[in-house]
Amino acid sequence: MSRVRASFRSAQFLTPILFLGLGGLPASASEGASPEEVGLALAREAREAKLGFGNFTAAQTMVLRNKQGRESRRELRVKVLEVEGDGDKSMFVFDQPRDVEGTALLIYSHKEAADEQWLYLPALKRVKRISSASRSGSFMGSEFAYEDMSAQEVEKFTYRYLRDEQCGDGGDGGDGEALTCAVMERFPVDKRSGYLRQVVWQDRDGQRLWKVEYYDRKNAHLKTLTVRDYQIYLDKYWHAGEMAMVNHLTGKSTVLTWSDYQFGNDLDAGDFSQTGLRRVR
């Protein structure tokens, strides 16, 4: 039996999109439940699957490609702290190339209040707060928006289940067995979001995110995120090895490759402060 079918609790960070990021209903929609109720239950099940990790650090490579296929590469460090009763705290620190070295993004995700984000720009030696109105903008020239970088908390969306269909690639480098995904729409509660809606593919076995289609405020298909190379950590938590975002309007893309996940680090809230942004090394 592949690890995909094993009875582990599971979770993922979307960005880490992307932590993309359920319970109370069986694999098929419960009789009498509305599509909205099924969608919300799926979202809650995914959240429950990722609880309890405490903290982790990871390495990340960001590859930006323009429409002609020309690439630029950046190296980052990531650290994430679980916050009981609220959204996670996370920090992204650029190490290479030299022109972005020391640039850092700090995020306080919240379940209901607006997320807080700060960007440290070493060339200016200042911390810039990212306003809610600016979160639909590009993060460091990538195809990921600032709002994509926050944990996708359940309360930030309303939901509607659409259908089940095959998806994924087996997820763990195993036998490539096809998975069954629940496909659902989610609608941002925040009217300042850059998205009108998102269509999400989430597998029924591990509650992992495999694809998200993003639609802009005019309901045009703006971007698609595909996720692959999942591995399981601590016998519980699924994390992706690659996240690829394609912008259908510009032809540009960004690929995030994750590696060197480490759990149970000596981290606390003091490591995620605006003052700490200026001291990151």
Describe how the helices and strands are arranged.
Elements lengths: L14 H4 L16 H16 L4 E11 L5 E11 L7 E8 L7 E5 L7 E6 L4 E4 L16 H4 L7 E11 L11 E10 L6 E9 L5 E8 L4 E8 L2 E3 L3 E3 L2 E6 L5 E11 L10 H4 L4
Antiparallel strand pairs: 1-2, 1-15, 2-3, 3-4, 4-5, 5-6, 7-8, 8-9, 9-10, 10-11, 11-14, 12-13, 14-15
Please give the alpha-carbon distance between the first and last residues. Answer: 43 Å
What strand line-up does the widest sheet have? 6-5-4-3-2-1-15-14-11-10-9-8-7
What is the H/E order?
HHEEEEEEHEEEEEEEEEH
Determine the structural class based on helices, strands and strand pairing. mainly beta
User: Percent of residues in helical segments?
Assistant: under 10%
Based on DSSP secondary structure assignment, what is the total number of beta strands?
Answer: 15
Summarize the structure in words.
- This protein is mainly beta.
- It is built from four helices and 15 strands.
- The strands form two sheets. The protein has a 13-stranded antiparallel sheet.
- Strand 2 and strand 3 form a beta hairpin.
- The longest helix is centred in the first third of the chain and has 16 residues, at 35-50.
- The chain is globular and about 55 Å long.
- The N and C termini lie far apart (43 Å).
- Mean pLDDT is 87; it is low at 1-29 and 170-175.
